[in-house]
Specification:
Layout: H1 2-8, H2 12-31, H3 40-55, H4 63-87, H5 91-115, H6 117-127, H7 132-164, H8 171-185, H9 208-236, H10 239-260, H11 265-277, H12 282-286, H13 293-298, H14 302-312, H15 323-347, H16 354-370, H17 377-391, H18 400-412, H19 423-435, H20 440-456, H21 463-477, H22 479-509, H23 539-555, E1 569-575, E2 580-586, H24 587-594, E3 601-603, H25 604-611, H26 615-626, E4 633-636, E5 649-652, E6 662-664, H27 674-703, E7 705-707, H28 708-719, H29 727-739, E8 743-745, E9 752-755
Helix pairs in contact: 2-3, 2-5, 3-6, 4-5, 4-7, 5-7, 5-8, 7-8, 7-9, 8-9, 9-11, 10-11, 10-14, 15-16, 15-17, 16-17, 18-19, 18-20, 19-21, 20-22, 20-27, 21-22, 27-28, 27-29
Length: 757
């Protein structure tokens, strides 16, 4: 019985001999490039032999010995056949052999695992040994890879350099060789494993071998190559040519990584190349005399600027690197162009076109920021900073705020300089320029006075456009900034309703004025302050004033009317000998002309006495009637002299005629006089004092105690949206508030203020 049992046991040498014969058969088929397939029957026999040798009871369980011989089997094959075959070849042939041998070795490992799989499933789990597949990779690394890696690396780097120099290389070969470096470190994806199969920890480090043995030397070689190339280019090429070459090189490297390097290399490789080609030579490129960044901006080379932006955007930002130095050059360039426009405009007498030139200039550089510079926030910031420098320069005696407001007036009034269909776009551009003004309150005050004239003289081309601009300003500066402007438009709408009610009231009361009368009721707080002249009105107009006053007082008792005739208009008929002509004139001009119904001639002093107009004002109005294009009155003596004396006599010109049946005379009030400009600036200065005081009180009420420096800083910050406050004004307003006991100085520290509730 014992003898029978012994005959079933597979002895170690006998079993291994059978296994070795099977292994030799597979390597023979493999060396002949698999011209025949491995017999299935032999595969089953070898699997059974291994299974039996591993499942026999001790002392005939050969699992431990089989595992050792499994490792030695690889060493024998690799040292006897594979290593000599690789070493026998050189250059590309050696790389081909290396790649082929690794491919075959993977097939061998896979086949051996199928034969010895019982070891993997049970023995290795029990003794915590290295899995069979890992053993196969490890033996190749130790026996072959470590012996030839230096030559293989040198071959790979040599081919990459050749390709960089323009030669054609076998990319498939490079890919298969470089993959060996990756797969040696991370063997798991090579061999699909079954669910639940233990695969051990090898390969957890993954790319260590690739990084250490190939990637690091490749990065160093790349740095040297591109440092040499950049040194050659910087001396001979223009900035655009250099950047074109750099762009092409970076694209080539991205394609190279995709073709045969590991994807993790791309970021590191590009970073090193960007440093060599771009960062190390950035200042020299930007400062090139004829072709650098300044020259490209001057010559408007948008494609080259776009390329420059895209390339230097790759670099980290700092004052000397990346986009920051470019943005600084762009800022300086815009300031230079803007200041040259300011100097040119200062030499001109007429500044009407200045705002349009600013808009055109802004359009040009906004297109540059949004186009070549990708609407990058850094370039948006420098555009704003640059415009703030020269937009706030005075042109002669005018501020940009005043000129911009006048420009708005020209496009908003009837017969203005607007282009149909583009008005909304133009308003957006005006508001953009407005946002760069440091004295926004000055713009608001000028705009308010001009809007008032447009509305009251019926010169506004479109209510919708007026509202549109006010809405845009409100969005920029808040509701408080535009509250007066909105109130003015509301007043005009309410006045239309008032006028309808007045007409209905007259019909009901059977009142007939004999003339058409239209009255606009304004809310004092919304509108500019107008000088009230005690003018003597003709009885026809007095009747209108008295009638409307009775109507208004019948409807409201808590409001008082104050009549301002400055911006009033009248249409009178001049009965001239050739033909009657309608004259559209101001209320003051009407008061003067109506005197000539009573007598043919009047002296300057007589007219002054009868109308009660101030002499200086009167002379201006007489000039519009006697010395302008339309001579309704004749002056004597010295009819051609522009000066008017108190004794000059004016006579109604009965022979006056014109082709038109209706003439709009110069109303005088439509233009902004020097006195008005001065009063506007004084109004703004006064408003600023109140705004500074209000801000100081707000801050101190919240903080209770504050140092002088911190208070000035916080008040300046609060008011910056409207105007740039002068620290001296803030100091004066603090002193004023102390004297009025809103604040007091700290007894122990004079530089600290306390709020007095």
């Amino acid at each position: 019985m014992n003898t029978a049992g012994m005959s079933d046991v597979v002895q170690l040498e006998e079993g291994w001999k059978r296994m070795q014969e099977g292994i030799d058969k597979f390597t023979q088929i493999m060396e002949s490039d698999f011209r025949e397939s491995f017999p299935l029957a032999l595969h089953s026999e070898l699997y059974t032999t291994c299974y039996t040798m591993c499942t026999q009871k001790a002392p005939y369980n050969w699992a431990d010995e089989l595992y050792k011989r499994y490792q030695l089997m690889y060493d024998s094959q690799l040292e006897r056949v594979v290593l000599p075959a690789i070493k026998a070849k050189h250059g590309e042939a050696m790389l081909h052999e290396f790649a082929k041998r690794w491919k075959n070795h993977k097939l061998l490992v896979r086949q051996m695992w199928k034969l010895f799989v019982y070891l993997d499933r049970f023995y290795i789990k029990r003794v915590s040994a290295l899995p069979l597949k890992a053993v196969g990779v490890q033996r190749f690394e130790l026996a072959v890879f470590n012996q030839v890696k230096d030559d293989v690396r040198a071959g790979v780097l040599g081919l990459i350099e050749k390709e960089r120099e323009g030669e054609q290389v076998d990319r498939e070969l490079l890919k298969s060789v470089i993959n060996v470096f990756v797969e040696i470190g991370d063997w798991r994806p090579l061999f699909p494993t079954r669910v639940g199969e233990e695969i051990g920890d090898i390969g957890a480090a993954r790319l260590n071998v690739y990084v250490k043995e190939l990637e690091t030397p490749l990065l160093n070689a790349s740095k040297e190559f591109y440092a040499r190339e950049a040194s050659q280019w910087i001396g001979s090429d223009s900035c655009p040519e250099y950047l074109k070459k750099a762009e092409a090189r970076l694209q080539q490297e991205v394609a190279r990584v995709a073709a045969y390097l590991h994807s993790s290399t791309e970021e590191k490789l590009l970073k090193d190349i960007e440093e060599q080609l771009l960062a190390n030579h950035q200042q020299a490129l930007l400062d090139k005399e004829e072709t650098g960044c300044r020259a490209l901006l001057r010559e408007e080379k948008t494609e080259d600027l776009k390329r420059m932006y895209k390339l230097f955007m790759r670099l980290p930002n700092s004052p000397t690197c990346g986009l920051q130095p470019i943005s600084q050059i762009v800022r300086d360039h815009i300031v230079e162009v803007g200041m040259s426009l300011v100097r040119k405009e200062e030499a001109e007498k007429d500044h009407t076109n200045y705002a349009q030139q600013l808009i055109d200039l802004h359009d040009k550089y906004l297109a540059l920021v949004q186009g070549p510079f990708g609407n990058n926030s850094l370039f948006q910031k420098v555009l704003k900073e640059a415009f703030e420098v020269f937009v706030n320069k005075e042109i002669g005696n005018c501020t940009t705020a005043e000129l911009l407001s006048t420009f708005c007036d020209n496009i908003m009034k009837t017969g203005g300089d607007k282009i149909e269909g583009e008005i909304d776009l133009l308003l957006d551009k005006i508001v953009m320029l407005f946002s760069y003004l440091s004295d926004k309150d000055m713009f608001a005050e000028f705009y308010r006075k001009q809007l008032a004239k447009r509305l009251l003289l019926n010169r506004s081309a479109s209510d919708d456009d007026e509202r549109s601009l006010i809405t845009k300003l409100k969005y920029r500066c808040g509701a408080q900034f535009t509250s007066k402007l909105e109130g003015m438009l509301t007043d005009m709408n309410v006045s239309k309703d008032n006028q309808n009610n007045f007409s209905a009231w007259m019909r009901k009361s059977e009142v007939n004025l004999g003339i058409e009368c239209s009255v606009t009721v304004l809310t004092t707080g919304f509108w500019p302050t107008y000088k009230v002249d005690e003018v003597t009105l003709p009885h026809e107009l007095l009747k209108c004033v008295d009638t409307f006053t009775r109507f208004y007082e019948s409807r409201t008792s808590h409001r008082k009317l104050k009549w301002i005739h400055t911006l009033g208009t009248c249409t009178v008929i001049g009965r001239f000998e050739p033909k009657p002509i309608e004259l559209v004139i101001s209320t003051y001009q009407a008061c003067i002309l109506m005197l000539f119904n009573q007598q043919e001639s009047n002296s300057t002093s007589d007219i002054c006495r009868d109308t009660k107009l101030p002499m200086e004002e009167l002379k201006k109005y007489l000039q519009t009637l006697a010395l302008s294009k339309y001579q309704i009155l004749l002056k004597s003596p010295n009819p051609k002299s522009k000066d008017i004396a108190d004794t000059d006599v004016f006579t109604f010109n009965r022979k006056f005629t014109d082709r038109q049946r209706k003439i709009k005379m110069s109303l005088l009030v439509t233009k902004v006089s020097q006195d008005e400009k001065l009063s506007t600036k004084q109004t703004v200065d006064e408003d600023r004092k109140h705004a500074v005081e209000a801000s100081i009180v707000r801050v101190m009420k919240a903080r209770k105690t504050m140092t002088h420096q911190n208070l000035v800083m916080e008040v300046s910050q609060q008011l910056m949206k409207l105007f740039k406050p002068d620290p001296k004004i803030i100091k004066n307003r603090i002193e004023s508030l102390i004297s009025r006991e809103y604040l007091e100085r700290d007894k122990d520290n004079q530089g600290v203020y306390k709020y007095l509730a």
